[in-house]
Amino acid sequence: MNNQHSPRVVLVTGAGRGIGEAIAMAFARAGDNLVLVSRTFPELVRVAKQACAYGVEALALGANVANYYEVRHAVKVAIARFGHIDVLVNNAGICGPVGPLADNNPCEWVDTILNNLAGTAFCMQAVLPYMIQRRQGIIINISGGGAVRPRPCFSSYAASKAAVVRLTETVAAEVLQYNIRINAIAPGIVNTRMLEPILAAGKKAGPEFTSARQQQLCGGHSAKDAAALALFLASPAASSITGRLISAVWDEWHSIADVLRGEPGSSICTLRRIDGREFLEQARPRAVSAPQSAPSIKSGREFGLPTGSRSIGP
Known about the structure:
The protein is α/β, with parallel strands linked by helices. It has one domain: NAD(P)-binding Rossmann-like Domain (Rossmann fold, 3-Layer(aba) Sandwich), CATH 3.40.50. The protein is built from 10 helices and 8 strands. It has an 8-stranded mixed beta sheet with strand order 7-6-5-4-1-2-3-8, with helices on both faces. The chain is globular and about 50 Å long.
């Protein structure tokens, strides 16, 4: 156990496997108590038992993030057990229908938005009142493929993940006065069960079918990268970072905090226009005369009701 700080209470959704499990175990190794939430309760029990090997307590709660009432109940159970929630990690999500939008089942399309976007919002809505009351808290949302570029044949997933980023930016501005930080992580291409619907879709997945087969054979990025970034964003070293989308793989995230301290109003690691209009509007009040044409924009790499509950402890 890492004793660099007092044990915090960290709620992780979708914590039964994949990226959620990796993030939960990283916080357990750091000495933090866990609230593990997922629809797959048996998997949560397994992760909780593994976490307790590090001397922490883990509360497993079966709940569907797409159901606000289940989310609210899970948060109330966690508050009753621990008294507060220091960190919320919104990881739960689904791939959704694969194939061109015109061929998608509309109910499955909407269900993806409900799980990935509304589920994230529901968890934030349930936790934020407690964080606001304490005037402190950290929220980390998992974004990903489609958030910053088109993702053909995955329109519901891409749209939901892009919306998660703008939700992150917007609510981060709303709660800044309460010392609450909210950021989003792009975890990279990680081998999780989300590969299964892509492989099953075959040609309907478009170019991503070939990529998924190669990823399955050769391996993708490690879930440990996203877990390491989540730990960083929940640490005092990231106190200047809020309302940002950060890649666990491509961004030099250890140095982003230093950059933002010097440029708190910077648009770095945010969704923004890139055609120059926004930059013209920002520059005009400071300029002696408006430029005749849009300034050149330097482009570069992105900087970067419940099915069960159980408390397990040492």
